[in-house]
């Protein structure tokens, strides 16, 4: 198919993280291990929460959804990256690139909204404990989670439409290991200043707005805990500290990538590793190693008590 006097691009070349063979082998081993940890760690959290009735509170319901989203998020980019690291031809079809872009922003925006909901859950539990059960009922949790997925879908549709309406006639080399809006639209055969501003008003402002809401929530939590020095509040604060760690690792790179139009740096693809690989790896570790209830439930899941018969008791 032609576009004026130019041929339309049918595939893109993913330059990846490095063109050195030794580094590619190292990256393959590292990211394969990371991807396996994401799958096993988050699946373990989901199974544990579903198996233990004691983990039926809104916090663990939202944690279970976060684990599922982390699996989806890293599965959008990691399998393709692993294949490219051991392949000579690192190309991706135009349609596959758009599909990857769509699902990346779908699950990525959904995770942003869910992390914001989780911050609201912790704010309600600490600052309004007497009304917590009424405010964060199971029905409300389901509505909030559905709203997160719906918001992520709408965001992704906008990003995808902004991309596919552009003409691509070459070059076709993407300086990254996956397809994303910023590096893809800069390959368009037209001025993309307006598109980049629309991208900033969508992805960039969403990232910044969610992050500011999170910071505000934790500010209120810190003020409340400073006044109430009970053991329960300090335990809740410990949970919030781990949550804040995840939030910072996830949002700061996203704000760095999506809130600055018209410029790109060679380090962008390395920054992307933080929220596409590193954060999904860290979430299971942070939410399990710092949570005694989850660790106890995992222990019971893998070491069930022995049911001795009456004859064995004698």
Automatic annotation (TrEMBL):
Pfam families: 7tm_4 (PF13853)
SUPFAM superfamilies attached to this UniProt entry: Family A G protein-coupled receptor-like
Bilayer disposition of the protein: Multi-pass membrane protein
Subcellular location: Cell membrane; Membrane
A GO MF label: G protein-coupled receptor activity
Keyword Cell membrane: yes
Membrane-spanning residues: 25-47, 59-78, 98-120, 140-158, 205-225, 237-259, 271-289
Highest taxon, organism lineage: Eukaryota
Cellular component GO terms held in the UniProt record: plasma membrane
G-protein coupled receptors family 1 profile domain boundaries: 41-287
Principal place of residence: membrane
Sorted UniProt keywords: Cell membrane, G-protein coupled receptor, Membrane, Olfaction, Receptor, Sensory transduction, Transducer, Transmembrane, Transmembrane helix
Family designation: Belongs to the G-protein coupled receptor 1 family.
Protein name: Olfactory receptor
UniProt lineage: Eukaryota, Metazoa, Chordata, Craniata, Vertebrata
